[in-house]
Design goal:
With about 290 residues, the chain is of the alpha/beta class. It contains seven helices and 13 strands. The strands form two sheets. It has a ten-stranded mixed β-sheet with strand order 1-2-4-3-5-6-8-13-12-11, sandwiched between helices. It has a three-stranded antiparallel β-sheet with strand order 7-10-9.
């Protein structure tokens, strides 16, 4: 789980809109960013999930989709967990799947978001929660992207419906190991294992298109991108292996020192890459 404890200074661009709702008697909070656009325009929705013990403001600071949203015209929502996202079998009375389901309803109703173009991304604990949503809200979400996270094993849910999926993970992540294994009392797939599961589920070609991104930033990191395609449906599974990357958001804020969380690569902008992946899909791809 990712810890963000630094204070957040005033955020740029249009103001963030605070919102809350009651879910099973629990007050749930979220921040929304709406880019300027023509009235009545149905915009896509990107839900961005923070790491464990972090916050919506912290997520906007770490993974700032706002410049991309301004250009491409989509809504960004960063909801708040109750300390952590409940991606495991024991919910401790907090149903985060229900919260996100109701949040999607709210944003569609209040801000005229396009129900065919709802996407979810997240880092660390938020990435694992994104994977859970891909399993349990897959009829509402068009595509998902997980950063520094894979998929829980044996927590009562699993992948069961085709969906475009993207993963980004550092090989030297000290918190969520790239090779999977035991994690905070549970077990998680490695990046290679979870991509194999998605490739099989989506019936993609098993041979990947491989692209290497060199260390142009001279920060000691490089990237290997693997793309798997189902040529009949157009669905892709994409994996980015960040060589020497840590428990970080590519191109984002180095929120803790490198000796604690590892390096943030400057050879990739995760917000740009994730949106470029998302925007090619809507729910009808999976119909």
């Amino acid at each position: 789980m990712m810890i963000l404890s630094a204070s957040i200074s005033a955020l740029a661009q249009s103001p963030l809109i605070s919102g809350d709702m009651i879910v099973d008697g629990n007050k749930r909070f979220f921040l929304t960013y709406i880019p300027a656009t023509e009235k009545g325009h149905k915009m896509p929705l990107v839900i961005s999930l923070h790491g464990g013990l972090a916050s919506p403001k912290g997520m906007f600071h770490l993974a700032d989709f706002r410049p991309v949203a301004d250009r491409e015209k989509f809504i960004v929502v960063c909801p708040a967990s109750k300390r952590i996202w409940h991606d495991g079998a024991d919910l401790h009375g907090i149903d985060d799947v229900k919260f996100i389901d109701q949040l999607i309803n709210y944003i569609i109703k209040i801000y005229n978001a396009d129900p065919e173009r709802v996407y979810v991304t997240g880092i660390s604990n938020g990435g694992f929660m994104t994977a859970r949503l891909a399993c349990q809200l897959n009829r509402r979400i068009a595509a998902v992207a997980m950063v520094a996270a894979t998929l829980d094993i044996g927590e009562g849910y699993d992948l069961d419906r085709p969906m475009p999926a993207l993963y980004m993970h550092g090989t030297t992540d000290p918190i969520v190991p790239y090779k999977g294994g035991k994690l905070f009392g549970r077990s998680a797939y490695s990046q290679d294992e979870v991509i194999d599961k998605w490739v099989a589920l989506n019936n993609c070609n098993k041979t990947a298109l491989i692209t290497t991104i060199p260390d142009k930033a001279n920060d000691g990191t490089s990237i290997v991108k693997e793309e798997y395609l189902n040529p009949k449906t157009g669905i892709k599974v994409v994996g980015y292996t960040i060589i020497n990357g840590g428990h970080t958001w590519p191109g984002g804020w180095q929120y803790l020192p490198k000796f604690i969380i590892g390096k943030t690569t400057r050879n990739l902008n995760a917000c740009e890459e994730i949106w470029n992946f998302f925007k090619g899909y809507k729910l009808s791809f999976k119909s």
